[in-house]
Amino acid sequence: MPFFAEFEHVDVLTTGAIGVPGSRTFYLQARMGPRTVTVRCEKQQAAAIAQYLRRALNHLPVPEGQPPRNVMHLAEPIDEAFVLGAVALEFNRSGDHFVLHLREFALDDDDENDDEDDEALGFDDADGEESGGLMRVSLTRAQAMAFCEHTDRVVSAGRPDCVFCERPMNPEGHFCPRMN
User: Fold this and answer.
1) Which pTM does this prediction carry?
2) 178: which of 54, 152, 160, 164 fits an S-S bond (Cβ 3.0–4.6 Å)?
């Protein structure tokens, strides 16, 4: 049976990175009371989730209050449940909260048209069973805004981008295709 976690009223949804810039490993982490689930992801995935949440927040009233910054750090120990693949986001108007669906990355040899976009958010396979891990996290608008701001700080704490090619630069330099 694949991994499944649901956080109906998450205390914190955060992101973090471990390692030195250029060799960091990124994580998303949901916490509710003593329960913690951590998912490994790519830097671009964390940034994209923050971008989509921010875009959705722009169409909603400004949220009030946010969790303090000190709760936005990753909680130890970091035991990853799975590696992030697909992400889906929805907004529940009646409950005034976001629901973030995180699905495990899985290589399928018979990826026939991605099973009609994984049955439009349900992520179900043709036989009705979920493939791979899945985590659903419900978060308030204030928690979503805190996630976006924290993720922006984590992502920007890496290597600076080249002004010419916009690729990350190592301290010893990099190959820049625009600087022939």
Assistant:
1) 0.80
2) 164
